[in-house]
Amino acid sequence: MAGTTDGNFLRQFRDLTTREFKQITANQFMDVWHHYDSNSDGYIEGKELDSFLKELVTSINKEDLGPEVVSESALKEAKELILNAFDENRDGKIDIAELAQILPTEENFLLLFRRDHPLDSSVEFMKVWREFDSDHSGFIEADELKNFLRHLLKQKKREYTITEEQLTIYTGTVLQLFDRNKDGKLQLSEMAKLLPVRENFLCRPVFKKIFKPRALDMFADIPCVRNRFKRQGSANKMTHDDIKRVFNLYDRDENGSIENEELNGFLKDLMELVEEGMPAEAKDYDEEDLNECKKILLDKCDLNHDGKINLDELSMILMSYNRSSSDTECAKE
User: 302 and 313 in contact (C-beta within 8 Å)?
Assistant: First the structure.
Protein backbone atom coordinates (compact mmCIF):
# COMPACT_ATOMS: atom_id res chain seq x y z
CA MET A 1 0.00 0.00 0.00
CA ALA A 2 1.24 3.46 -0.83
CA GLY A 3 2.84 5.26 2.06
CA THR A 4 1.56 8.42 3.69
CA THR A 5 3.40 10.75 6.02
CA ASP A 6 0.37 12.24 7.76
CA GLY A 7 -3.10 11.32 8.84
CA ASN A 8 -4.81 12.11 5.53
CA PHE A 9 -4.58 9.10 3.22
CA LEU A 10 -5.66 10.96 0.07
CA ARG A 11 -3.12 13.78 0.39
CA GLN A 12 -0.34 11.61 -1.08
CA PHE A 13 -2.22 11.52 -4.40
CA ARG A 14 -2.27 15.30 -4.86
CA ASP A 15 0.35 17.32 -6.73
CA LEU A 16 2.48 19.23 -4.21
CA THR A 17 2.38 22.42 -6.27
CA THR A 18 -1.07 22.60 -7.87
CA ARG A 19 -2.87 20.61 -5.12
CA GLU A 20 -4.80 18.85 -7.91
CA PHE A 21 -5.17 15.10 -7.78
CA LYS A 22 -2.65 13.23 -9.88
CA GLN A 23 -3.94 10.43 -12.08
CA ILE A 24 -4.59 7.41 -9.88
CA THR A 25 -3.36 4.05 -11.16
CA ALA A 26 -5.21 0.77 -10.83
CA ASN A 27 -3.04 -0.33 -7.90
CA GLN A 28 -3.42 3.02 -6.15
CA PHE A 29 -7.17 2.85 -6.62
CA MET A 30 -7.17 -0.56 -4.94
CA ASP A 31 -5.19 0.88 -2.02
CA VAL A 32 -7.70 3.72 -1.62
CA TRP A 33 -10.64 1.34 -1.74
CA HIS A 34 -9.26 -1.05 0.86
CA HIS A 35 -8.25 1.85 3.12
CA TYR A 36 -11.77 3.30 3.33
CA ASP A 37 -13.83 0.09 3.00
CA SER A 38 -12.49 -0.89 6.40
CA ASN A 39 -15.03 -3.66 7.05
CA SER A 40 -14.61 -5.14 3.54
CA ASP A 41 -18.35 -5.24 2.86
CA GLY A 42 -18.05 -3.80 -0.65
CA TYR A 43 -19.23 -0.28 0.22
CA ILE A 44 -17.90 2.95 1.70
CA GLU A 45 -20.71 3.93 4.04
CA GLY A 46 -21.51 5.37 7.44
CA LYS A 47 -18.38 6.40 9.33
CA GLU A 48 -16.22 5.14 6.44
CA LEU A 49 -17.97 7.58 4.11
CA ASP A 50 -17.61 10.44 6.62
CA SER A 51 -13.89 9.72 6.89
CA PHE A 52 -13.46 9.53 3.11
CA LEU A 53 -15.32 12.78 2.46
CA LYS A 54 -13.51 14.66 5.22
CA GLU A 55 -10.13 13.58 3.88
CA LEU A 56 -11.22 14.27 0.29
CA VAL A 57 -12.01 17.88 1.25
CA THR A 58 -9.04 18.49 3.56
CA SER A 59 -6.44 16.75 1.39
CA ILE A 60 -6.13 19.96 -0.61
CA ASN A 61 -4.32 21.45 2.40
CA LYS A 62 -0.61 20.70 2.65
CA GLU A 63 -0.96 19.55 6.23
CA ASP A 64 -3.62 18.80 8.80
CA LEU A 65 -4.85 22.00 10.44
CA GLY A 66 -7.11 20.48 13.08
CA PRO A 67 -10.69 19.26 13.22
CA GLU A 68 -12.10 22.77 12.95
CA VAL A 69 -11.06 22.95 9.26
CA VAL A 70 -14.26 21.15 8.22
CA SER A 71 -17.33 21.88 10.28
CA GLU A 72 -20.10 19.34 10.70
CA SER A 73 -22.40 21.46 8.52
CA ALA A 74 -19.76 21.67 5.77
CA LEU A 75 -19.19 17.93 5.92
CA LYS A 76 -22.94 17.29 5.67
CA GLU A 77 -23.15 19.61 2.66
CA ALA A 78 -20.17 17.90 1.01
CA LYS A 79 -21.77 14.50 1.55
CA GLU A 80 -25.01 15.63 -0.08
CA LEU A 81 -23.16 17.07 -3.06
CA ILE A 82 -21.02 13.96 -3.59
CA LEU A 83 -23.90 11.52 -3.18
CA ASN A 84 -26.16 13.55 -5.48
CA ALA A 85 -23.46 13.57 -8.14
CA PHE A 86 -22.06 10.04 -7.88
CA ASP A 87 -24.41 7.76 -5.92
CA GLU A 88 -26.08 6.37 -9.05
CA ASN A 89 -28.36 3.86 -7.31
CA ARG A 90 -29.28 6.27 -4.49
CA ASP A 91 -28.48 3.82 -1.69
CA GLY A 92 -26.53 6.35 0.41
CA LYS A 93 -23.26 4.44 -0.07
CA ILE A 94 -20.31 4.52 -2.44
CA ASP A 95 -19.50 1.32 -4.29
CA ILE A 96 -16.38 0.53 -6.33
CA ALA A 97 -17.75 1.82 -9.63
CA GLU A 98 -18.94 5.05 -8.02
CA LEU A 99 -15.55 5.67 -6.39
CA ALA A 100 -13.92 5.21 -9.80
CA GLN A 101 -16.02 8.14 -11.03
CA ILE A 102 -15.07 10.36 -8.07
CA LEU A 103 -11.31 9.93 -8.26
CA PRO A 104 -9.23 10.80 -11.37
CA THR A 105 -8.57 7.16 -12.22
CA GLU A 106 -6.48 6.26 -15.28
CA GLU A 107 -8.75 6.18 -18.31
CA ASN A 108 -8.56 2.52 -19.37
CA PHE A 109 -9.14 1.28 -15.81
CA LEU A 110 -12.02 3.74 -15.38
CA LEU A 111 -13.71 2.36 -18.50
CA LEU A 112 -14.13 -0.99 -16.75
CA PHE A 113 -16.60 0.67 -14.35
CA ARG A 114 -18.54 2.87 -16.77
CA ARG A 115 -22.27 2.23 -16.41
CA ASP A 116 -23.53 4.26 -19.35
CA HIS A 117 -24.47 1.10 -21.26
CA PRO A 118 -25.31 -1.60 -18.68
CA LEU A 119 -26.68 -4.98 -19.65
CA ASP A 120 -30.45 -4.87 -19.97
CA SER A 121 -31.19 -7.87 -17.78
CA SER A 122 -29.85 -10.94 -16.00
CA VAL A 123 -30.61 -12.96 -19.14
CA GLU A 124 -27.91 -10.98 -20.96
CA PHE A 125 -25.64 -11.29 -17.92
CA MET A 126 -25.92 -15.08 -18.01
CA LYS A 127 -25.05 -15.10 -21.70
CA VAL A 128 -21.87 -13.16 -20.93
CA TRP A 129 -21.13 -15.47 -18.00
CA ARG A 130 -21.50 -18.54 -20.19
CA GLU A 131 -19.31 -17.05 -22.92
CA PHE A 132 -16.37 -16.25 -20.66
CA ASP A 133 -16.61 -19.26 -18.32
CA SER A 134 -14.88 -21.09 -21.15
CA ASP A 135 -14.00 -24.21 -19.14
CA HIS A 136 -17.53 -24.47 -17.68
CA SER A 137 -16.14 -24.64 -14.16
CA GLY A 138 -18.84 -22.40 -12.70
CA PHE A 139 -16.28 -19.66 -11.99
CA ILE A 140 -14.45 -16.93 -13.90
CA GLU A 141 -10.77 -17.69 -13.31
CA ALA A 142 -7.94 -15.20 -13.82
CA ASP A 143 -7.27 -16.07 -17.47
CA GLU A 144 -11.00 -15.91 -18.28
CA LEU A 145 -11.32 -12.61 -16.42
CA LYS A 146 -8.42 -11.22 -18.43
CA ASN A 147 -10.21 -12.18 -21.67
CA PHE A 148 -13.40 -10.58 -20.37
CA LEU A 149 -11.65 -7.31 -19.45
CA ARG A 150 -9.98 -7.23 -22.89
CA HIS A 151 -13.39 -7.67 -24.50
CA LEU A 152 -14.93 -5.01 -22.27
CA LEU A 153 -12.26 -2.43 -23.09
CA LYS A 154 -12.58 -3.09 -26.82
CA GLN A 155 -16.33 -2.58 -26.54
CA LYS A 156 -16.04 0.69 -24.65
CA LYS A 157 -13.12 2.20 -26.56
CA ARG A 158 -12.75 1.93 -30.31
CA GLU A 159 -9.12 3.07 -30.25
CA TYR A 160 -8.06 0.19 -28.05
CA THR A 161 -4.56 0.77 -26.67
CA ILE A 162 -3.48 -1.28 -23.69
CA THR A 163 -0.49 -3.51 -23.19
CA GLU A 164 -0.66 -7.08 -21.96
CA GLU A 165 1.22 -5.94 -18.86
CA GLN A 166 -1.44 -3.32 -18.09
CA LEU A 167 -4.18 -5.87 -18.71
CA THR A 168 -2.52 -8.30 -16.32
CA ILE A 169 -2.35 -5.55 -13.66
CA TYR A 170 -6.03 -4.72 -14.22
CA THR A 171 -6.97 -8.39 -13.91
CA GLY A 172 -5.14 -8.73 -10.61
CA THR A 173 -6.64 -5.50 -9.30
CA VAL A 174 -10.20 -6.44 -10.28
CA LEU A 175 -9.76 -9.83 -8.60
CA GLN A 176 -8.59 -8.19 -5.39
CA LEU A 177 -11.50 -5.73 -5.50
CA PHE A 178 -14.31 -8.18 -6.27
CA ASP A 179 -13.11 -11.59 -5.04
CA ARG A 180 -14.74 -11.38 -1.62
CA ASN A 181 -13.95 -14.92 -0.50
CA LYS A 182 -10.33 -14.64 -1.74
CA ASP A 183 -10.30 -17.92 -3.68
CA GLY A 184 -8.59 -16.34 -6.72
CA LYS A 185 -11.65 -16.45 -9.00
CA LEU A 186 -15.05 -14.83 -9.38
CA GLN A 187 -18.26 -16.64 -8.55
CA LEU A 188 -21.67 -15.53 -9.82
CA SER A 189 -22.42 -13.02 -7.05
CA GLU A 190 -18.95 -11.46 -7.38
CA MET A 191 -19.18 -11.16 -11.17
CA ALA A 192 -22.62 -9.59 -10.75
CA LYS A 193 -20.99 -6.74 -8.78
CA LEU A 194 -18.46 -6.17 -11.56
CA LEU A 195 -21.06 -6.39 -14.32
CA PRO A 196 -24.37 -5.00 -12.99
CA VAL A 197 -27.57 -5.13 -15.03
CA ARG A 198 -29.97 -2.29 -15.70
CA GLU A 199 -32.85 -3.96 -13.88
CA ASN A 200 -33.87 -7.00 -11.88
CA PHE A 201 -37.39 -7.37 -13.24
CA LEU A 202 -38.58 -9.13 -10.09
CA CYS A 203 -37.61 -6.13 -7.95
CA ARG A 204 -40.27 -3.99 -9.57
CA PRO A 205 -42.71 -3.05 -6.77
CA VAL A 206 -45.59 -4.72 -8.57
CA PHE A 207 -43.78 -8.09 -8.50
CA LYS A 208 -41.65 -7.90 -5.35
CA LYS A 209 -44.33 -8.61 -2.75
CA ILE A 210 -45.65 -11.40 -4.93
CA PHE A 211 -42.42 -13.23 -5.72
CA LYS A 212 -40.21 -12.82 -2.66
CA PRO A 213 -42.28 -14.93 -0.20
CA ARG A 214 -42.82 -17.59 -2.88
CA ALA A 215 -39.10 -17.74 -3.69
CA LEU A 216 -38.19 -18.04 0.01
CA ASP A 217 -40.67 -20.87 0.39
CA MET A 218 -39.72 -22.66 -2.82
CA PHE A 219 -35.97 -22.62 -2.14
CA ALA A 220 -36.09 -23.00 1.65
CA ASP A 221 -34.11 -26.26 1.54
CA ILE A 222 -31.10 -24.70 -0.21
CA PRO A 223 -28.38 -23.86 2.36
CA CYS A 224 -27.66 -20.38 0.96
CA VAL A 225 -31.35 -19.55 1.52
CA ARG A 226 -32.16 -21.59 4.63
CA ASN A 227 -29.20 -20.34 6.65
CA ARG A 228 -29.99 -16.66 6.12
CA PHE A 229 -33.71 -16.12 5.99
CA LYS A 230 -36.78 -16.62 8.09
CA ARG A 231 -40.04 -17.75 6.62
CA GLN A 232 -42.16 -14.80 5.55
CA GLY A 233 -45.83 -14.17 5.98
CA SER A 234 -48.37 -14.88 3.30
CA ALA A 235 -47.68 -13.42 -0.14
CA ASN A 236 -49.88 -11.06 -2.07
CA LYS A 237 -52.29 -12.90 -4.33
CA MET A 238 -50.94 -13.44 -7.83
CA THR A 239 -53.11 -13.24 -10.93
CA HIS A 240 -52.65 -14.94 -14.27
CA ASP A 241 -51.91 -11.51 -15.74
CA ASP A 242 -49.05 -11.05 -13.23
CA ILE A 243 -47.56 -14.37 -14.24
CA LYS A 244 -47.91 -13.66 -17.95
CA ARG A 245 -46.19 -10.28 -17.59
CA VAL A 246 -43.23 -11.86 -15.76
CA PHE A 247 -43.06 -14.74 -18.23
CA ASN A 248 -42.88 -12.35 -21.18
CA LEU A 249 -40.02 -10.41 -19.57
CA TYR A 250 -37.84 -13.54 -19.48
CA ASP A 251 -38.99 -15.23 -22.70
CA ARG A 252 -36.65 -12.95 -24.62
CA ASP A 253 -36.80 -14.87 -27.90
CA GLU A 254 -40.61 -15.18 -27.64
CA ASN A 255 -40.58 -18.91 -28.40
CA GLY A 256 -43.06 -19.76 -25.64
CA SER A 257 -40.52 -21.15 -23.15
CA ILE A 258 -38.12 -19.83 -20.54
CA GLU A 259 -34.99 -21.88 -21.21
CA ASN A 260 -31.20 -21.90 -21.11
CA GLU A 261 -29.88 -18.45 -20.16
CA GLU A 262 -33.41 -17.07 -19.91
CA LEU A 263 -34.07 -19.58 -17.14
CA ASN A 264 -30.70 -18.92 -15.51
CA GLY A 265 -31.38 -15.17 -15.62
CA PHE A 266 -34.78 -15.68 -14.01
CA LEU A 267 -33.20 -17.76 -11.24
CA LYS A 268 -30.40 -15.22 -10.71
CA ASP A 269 -33.00 -12.49 -10.26
CA LEU A 270 -34.95 -14.69 -7.83
CA MET A 271 -31.82 -15.30 -5.74
CA GLU A 272 -30.99 -11.60 -5.65
CA LEU A 273 -34.58 -10.79 -4.75
CA VAL A 274 -34.53 -12.99 -1.66
CA GLU A 275 -31.19 -11.44 -0.63
CA GLU A 276 -32.42 -7.86 -1.01
CA GLY A 277 -32.02 -5.89 2.18
CA MET A 278 -29.51 -8.33 3.66
CA PRO A 279 -25.98 -7.26 4.70
CA ALA A 280 -23.47 -7.26 1.84
CA GLU A 281 -21.55 -10.19 3.35
CA ALA A 282 -24.71 -12.33 3.13
CA LYS A 283 -25.20 -11.69 -0.59
CA ASP A 284 -23.10 -14.61 -1.67
CA TYR A 285 -24.11 -17.23 -4.24
CA ASP A 286 -22.42 -19.28 -6.92
CA GLU A 287 -23.39 -21.42 -9.90
CA GLU A 288 -23.91 -24.46 -7.69
CA ASP A 289 -26.59 -22.53 -5.77
CA LEU A 290 -28.19 -21.49 -9.06
CA ASN A 291 -28.20 -25.10 -10.30
CA GLU A 292 -29.83 -26.26 -7.08
CA CYS A 293 -32.55 -23.66 -7.54
CA LYS A 294 -32.97 -24.76 -11.14
CA LYS A 295 -33.37 -28.40 -10.12
CA ILE A 296 -36.05 -27.49 -7.56
CA LEU A 297 -37.91 -25.27 -10.01
CA LEU A 298 -37.82 -27.86 -12.80
CA ASP A 299 -38.88 -30.64 -10.42
CA LYS A 300 -41.91 -28.58 -9.43
CA CYS A 301 -42.79 -27.00 -12.80
CA ASP A 302 -41.39 -28.96 -15.72
CA LEU A 303 -44.30 -31.36 -16.31
CA ASN A 304 -43.10 -32.58 -19.70
CA HIS A 305 -39.45 -32.89 -18.57
CA ASP A 306 -38.03 -30.89 -21.47
CA GLY A 307 -35.78 -28.74 -19.28
CA LYS A 308 -37.82 -25.62 -20.05
CA ILE A 309 -40.64 -23.72 -18.37
CA ASN A 310 -43.66 -22.71 -20.40
CA LEU A 311 -46.39 -20.30 -19.31
CA ASP A 312 -48.79 -23.03 -18.17
CA GLU A 313 -46.10 -24.71 -16.05
CA LEU A 314 -45.04 -21.45 -14.40
CA SER A 315 -48.68 -20.58 -13.75
CA MET A 316 -49.34 -23.95 -12.15
CA ILE A 317 -46.59 -23.70 -9.52
CA LEU A 318 -47.10 -20.01 -8.71
CA MET A 319 -50.88 -20.24 -8.49
CA SER A 320 -50.48 -23.21 -6.16
CA TYR A 321 -48.88 -20.81 -3.67
CA ASN A 322 -52.06 -18.75 -3.81
CA ARG A 323 -53.98 -21.80 -2.65
CA SER A 324 -51.50 -22.72 0.06
CA SER A 325 -51.47 -19.11 1.27
CA SER A 326 -55.27 -19.12 1.42
CA ASP A 327 -55.25 -22.40 3.33
CA THR A 328 -52.81 -20.92 5.85
CA GLU A 329 -54.99 -17.86 6.39
CA CYS A 330 -58.08 -20.03 6.85
CA ALA A 331 -56.25 -22.19 9.41
CA LYS A 332 -55.34 -19.06 11.38
CA GLU A 333 -58.98 -18.03 11.48
Answer: yes
